[in-house]
Every structure is written in structure tokens, then in C-alpha cells.
């Protein structure tokens, strides 16, 4: 997990909100669909005094642009937190609950704490440390969620490059664990490794290595 703490204020994004929000956090994840590796979840409180141009859904940005924005977000954010939910926990909880658990952890790890959370998707985690709104396609609509999506995506891609060196033959650095034909072929040939999600059907069909 990664965190950065600083001081700063945010203006309330929601007119009439029951919370006079000063610190508004965006929350998003990367890695729900792959067959291997963790889900990465990020929470970010942006600083309106230090705007970041070009924030967008991480999936719409080039890898080079994501990397550049990743560094700017970490430099300029009031606070951020990046949490990793490992494959074993995904298998134990299921992918939805594991993702929601990671979101709650990321929010609880922010310092200063968030007064309001904007969470990508249509579901809210339980036991959040602050009020929250779920926003469908929030990564394309809210800059704080866009920033969280970039932190999560870049962090996960970097981690999958590490796993590629640890578990050669699967192609993790190329496909990041997604069920592309080359990955499925490697699964059939090599069987699952420690980082594969045993509860996902394509992995379960290949047995335990």
C-alpha cells in the first residue's frame, strides 16, 4: 500500500449536500477483470490550488500520459492512498466484495481524512469513514475519480511487470493478467501460479500448479 499526506482544502462539489465538505476524495480501482494479480484501489484528494490538466479515465490515456499524470497527482494531491487486494483475498471474498473492501481501506488510510467520497460505479462499500456518492462512469466525469483511476492503473501495471519477472512464461507484462488468448494458452501449458485467482472459471479449469 502507498500513501501520501499533506494539507489542503477542497470546495463542496454538491449543492445542498448534508456535509460541508472540505476534503473530497475520488476513489477508483484497476484490475477487476484479470485472471491474475491483485486489484489496486486508489483514493485521492485533489488540491484546487494546484490543478492538474488532462485528468481523464485512465483507460482513455496512453501509457506515457498516465505515467506523467501519475507523478503530477502524487506531487500535487492533498493526500492519496493506494491499496492492494491480493488474489487470495479476491478468491475468499469474491471480486466485488474485495474491490469494495479495498475502497474502504483506501479511504480510511487518507490523512487528512476525507469529508466526502466520490466512488466510481453504482455500489458503495460498507463501513465507510465518511459520507459517499456512487457515480456511474465517474472516472470520466469527476477529476478526483479520474486521478484515482490513474494511480490505480499505473500502480497495477507496474506490479504486473514485477510479477512477469517472478513468474516468467505467462506474459503478465504484456497483458497484465487479462484473459487474452496468449494468457489462456500459457495457463493450459503451465497451470496457475500463486498470483492466479482460483475462483475465476478459466483458472479453475486449469487445476492447481
Question: What's the short story on this structure?
Answer:
The chain has about 210 residues and is α/β, with parallel strands linked by helices.
Question: What's the helix and strand layout?
Answer:
Elements: E1 2-5, E2 24-30, E3 39-45, H1 63-76, E4 79-85, H2 87-93, H3 95-108, E5 116-120, E6 132-135, H4 138-141, H5 143-166, H6 172-175, H7 181-190, H8 201-204
Parallel strand pairs: 2-5, 5-6
Antiparallel strand pairs: 1-4, 2-3, 3-4
Word description of this protein:
- The chain is of the alpha/beta class and 209 residues long.
- Helices cover 39% and strands 16% of the residues.
- The chain contains eight helices and six strands, in the order E-E-E-H-E-H-H-E-E-H-H-H-H-H.
- It has helices at residues 63-76, 87-93, 95-108, 138-141, 143-166, 172-175, 181-190, 201-204, and strands spanning 2-5, 24-30, 39-45, 79-85, 116-120, 132-135.
- Strands 1-4-3-2-5-6 form a six-stranded mixed β-sheet.
- A hairpin with an 8-residue loop joins strand 2 (24-30) and strand 3.
- Helix 1 (63-76) crosses helix 5 and helix 2 crosses helix 3.
- The chain starts with a strand and ends in a 5-residue tail after the last helix.
The number of helical runs is 8
Fraction of residues in helix: 25-40%
User: What is the overall silhouette?
Assistant: globular
Rg, Cα atoms, Å? 17 Å
Report the uncertain regions. 3-19
Oligomer: single chain
Strand order of the largest sheet: 1-4-3-2-5-6
Amino acid at each position: 500500500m502507498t500513501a501520501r499526506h499533506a494539507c489542503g482544502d477542497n470546495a463542496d462539489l454538491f449543492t445542498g449536500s448534508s456535509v460541508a465538505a472540505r476534503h473530497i476524495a475520488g476513489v477508483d480501482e484497476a484490475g477487476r477483470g484479470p485472471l491474475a494479480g491483485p486489484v489496486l484501489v486508489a483514493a485521492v484528494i485533489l488540491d484546487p490550488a494546484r490543478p492538474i490538466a488532462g485528468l481523464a479515465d485512465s483507460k482513455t490515456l496512453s501509457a506515457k500520459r498516465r505515467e506523467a499524470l501519475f507523478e503530477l497527482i502524487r506531487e500535487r494531491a492533498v493526500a492519496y492512498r493506494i491499496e492492494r487486494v491480493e488474489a487470495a483475498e479476491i478468491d475468499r471474498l469474491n471480486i466485488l466484495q474485495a474491490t469494495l473492501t479495498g475502497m474502504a481501506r483506501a479511504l480510511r488510510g487518507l490523512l487528512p481524512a476525507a469529508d466526502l467520497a466520490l466512488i466510481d460505479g453504482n455500489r458503495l462499500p460498507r463501513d465507510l469513514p465518511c459520507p459517499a456518492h456512487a457515480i456511474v462512469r465517474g472516472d470520466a466525469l469527476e477529476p478526483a475519480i479520474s486521478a484515482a483511476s490513474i494511480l490505480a492503473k499505473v500502480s497495477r501495471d507496474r506490479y504486473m511487470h514485477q510479477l512477469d519477472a517472478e513468474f516468467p512464461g505467462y506474459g503478465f507484462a504484456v497483458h497484465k493478467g487479462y484473459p487474452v488468448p496468449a494468457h489462456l494458452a500459457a495457463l493450459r501449458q503451465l497451470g496457475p501460479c500463486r498470483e492466479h485467482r482460483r475462483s475465476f472459471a478459466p483458472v479453475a479449469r486449469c487445476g492447481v500448479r
